[in-house]
Design brief:
Elements lengths: L2 E8 L3 H19 L3 E5 L4 H7 L7 H6 L3 E6 L7 H15 L4 E7 L17 E7 L9 E4 L7 E4 L5 H16 L4 E6 L7 H13 L6 E6 H10 L6 E4 L1 H14 L7 E5 L7 E5 L16 H13 L3 H16 L14 H13 L3
Parallel strand pairs: 1-2, 1-3, 3-12, 5-10, 8-9, 8-10
Antiparallel strand pairs: 4-5, 4-11, 6-7, 11-12
Helix pairs in contact: 1-9, 1-10, 1-11, 5-6, 7-8, 9-10, 10-11
Bound molecules: nicotinamide-adenine-dinucleotide (NAD).
């Protein structure tokens, strides 16, 4: 029976990179005899303008029956970002308990990192971001709006269950890679939640004696990622720290356009969601030059999650081959290729057995 994929292209370059990824997926699934069935949903800022809601009221019920969700990007000028994000992306992550946001990155052969010392094969790391609690909480409010004493309060929420499970995921992932975890903290400045994070991570680390680990203050960690990115393997971080760090690591790898992410429910009770790290890029939307690699790499993670490891590796090989060739890189990577040209190159590399 076919595995079902809900596709939400979203806004801006979202539909452009999703089109590209769908074409590439068709080729790789065909070559490997994999049966995926897609349904596309027009949930977006355009829909918000027309109907007053990013997605219909029963959207989460609709999505619940799918095996996976593939998303482009949401957000468009004119719709406040907190409306678009909290009207679509965040409800999906939370309702489906996608508590892991896994964001790998690597410096690929042929792609220049903005860092002189970062070279291909050396920089290869994963940010594991806590995805459903932490600093992005719904608890808080505004008072005295419009008065001089106006105020806003936003509570960060860290639970033992939440920190334990994200730490466990990071340690388990490290076992399949370089066996090294770095925990991002700020316990010198944030005196309640971050010492708690440190304690729980240390407790969980004791269950993984074969995995080396350390803890770094987030400010120093940001500097070290720039100075010695090759040092890191798995970085586990709270929602906010992980969000920021993964844009930094994407930039280290050459462009946010190549960075993928998986919003995972590791219990597999609910569908997981796969999306590039980047947003809707209104500055280049419609120009046909969006880099589709971040979305295609996200589909590699989706294929892996759906149990198609061989097809996933095949597609990753095509990504590497395409990045290696200067003629098939988009402008964000210093090239001149269009989205269509990169898609055609991926298709060719797949058929050539990359
Ligand atoms: N997960 C998401 O859907 C998500 C993530 C981040 C931002 N957003 C939303 O996207 C909108 C734009 O946000 P932003 O400008 O801060 O971030 P962005 O990621 O959209 O763009 C940042 C810069 O990177 C470039 N860029 C991004 N993706 C690229 C790609 N695939 N190829 C080539 N260049 C690419 C853009 O042109 C821009 O210069 C906002 O509404 C924001 O809320 C959505």
């Amino acid at each position: 029976m076919a595995q079902s994929i809900a596709v939400i292209p979203g806004d801006g370059i979202g539909p452009e990179v999703i089109d590209a990824a769908r074409q590439v997926l068709d080729v790789v699934t065909d070559l490997h005899g994999i049966d995926l069935a897609y349904d596309e949903f027009d949930w977006s800022c355009r829909r918000y303008d027309e109907t007053g809601a990013m997605m219909p009221e029963d959207a989460l019920d609709t999505l619940a029956s799918y095996d996976a969700i593939l998303l482009g990007a949401v957000g468009w000028p004119g719709v406040p970002d907190h409306v678009s994000l909290w009207g679509l992306l965040i409800p999906i992550r939370r309702a489906f308990r996608q508590y892991v946001n896994q964001r790998p990155i690597a410096v690929f052969e042929g792609v220049d990192s903005p860092l002189r010392s970062a070279s291909a094969g050396e920089v290869d790391l994963v940010v594991v971001r806590e995805n459903v609690e932490g600093e992005y909480s719904e608890i808080g409010g505004r008072m005295n709006r419009g008065f001089p004493d106006e105020m806003a309060v936003q509570e960060a929420v860290f639970t033992r269950a939440g920190v334990s499970r994200i730490a466990d995921h990071a340690f388990e992932l490290a076992r399949t890679r370089g066996s090294y975890v770095t925990s991002a903290t700020k316990s010198n400045g944030i005196v309640h939640t971050m010492p708690f994070w440190d304690e729980v991570v240390a407790e969980r680390a004791a269950e993984f004696p074969d995995v080396r680990w350390d803890s770094e203050l987030i400010d120093a960690l940001a500097a070290k990622i720039v100075l010695e990115p090759e040092r890191f393997d798995v970085i586990v971080a709270s929602n906010l720290f992980g969000d920021i760090l993964s844009d930094l690591t994407a930039a280290v790898a050459g462009s946010i356009g190549i960075a993928p992410s998986a919003n995972l429910d590791p219990t597999r009770t609910y569908p997981s969601m796969f999306e590039p790290v980047h947003g809707s890029a209104p500055d280049i939307a419609g120009n046909g030059v969006a880099n589709p690699i971040g979305t295609v790499w996200s589909t590699v993670m989706m294929l892996d999650h759906l149990g198609h490891a061989e097809a996933a590796q095949h597609l990753m090989g095509a990504v590497r081959a395409t990045l290696r060739d200067p003629a098939t890189r988009t402008p964000d990577l210093g090239g001149t290729a269009t989205t269509t040209e990169v898609t055609t190159a991926l298709d060719g590399a797949l058929r050539a057995g990359a």
